[in-house]
Amino acid sequence: MRELARARWPEAGDGDVPTVPGFVHSVFAPVVVAVAERCLRRRYGTGLVPAGTRTAFVLVSASGDRASAVHVRATVEAGGRVGPLFFYQSVPNSVAGHVAARWGLRGPVVCLSPTGDPYADGAAEAALLCDDGDADEVLLVLIEQAPDTSTEAVAVLLGGGARP
């Protein structure tokens, strides 16, 4: 497989993470959306992925949406009520599905918690999806939230050729 497009969050000139309707409190989902859309725009411009292309989405994160998990834990411990959007956004597939619907992706959605190198684990899953005939290309997004730094992510569109 070869790299068809790549993007990062943040890149030079980026300000605040754009908000995404339906996702609250945390920047995890908005960063996934921002970096995924930036990568897809670099390959396809502002339109949808072409109808004949099956694009899978592989989201790789060891910690998932850490900020939401901390908020929910603190709310429950304090005897508070957890808002319904947290149940929706607590599953990483929800943001992957959001991107897939907005861009017309027609391949599988897979979320991984890496056991080794995150890129290698994600690229191996991407190769498997293509080798099995489930996808022609794969949007691979790697994201982590650390408690004391800003959220960063990388998106790579892989496809067409030998494995990375």
Write the layout of secondary structure elements.
Layout: E1 2-9, H1 28-44, E2 55-60, H2 66-77, H3 84-89, H4 93-103, E3 109-112, H5 118-131, E4 137-144, E5 152-159
Parallel strand pairs: 2-3, 2-4
Antiparallel strand pairs: 1-5, 4-5
Explain what you see:
With 164 residues, the chain is of the alpha/beta class. It has one domain: Thiolase/Chalcone synthase (Peroxisomal Thiolase, Chain A, domain 1). The protein has helices at residues 28-44, 66-77, 84-89, 93-103, 118-131, and strands at 2-9, 55-60, 109-112, 137-144, 152-159. It has a five-stranded mixed β-sheet, sandwiched between helices. The longest helix is centred in the N-terminal third of the chain and has 17 residues, at 28-44. The model has no long low-confidence stretch (mean pLDDT 89). GO terms for molecular function: acyltransferase activity.
Overview in brief:
This protein is 37% helix and 21% strand. By secondary structure, it is an alpha/beta fold. α1 (28-44) runs parallel beside α4 (93-103).
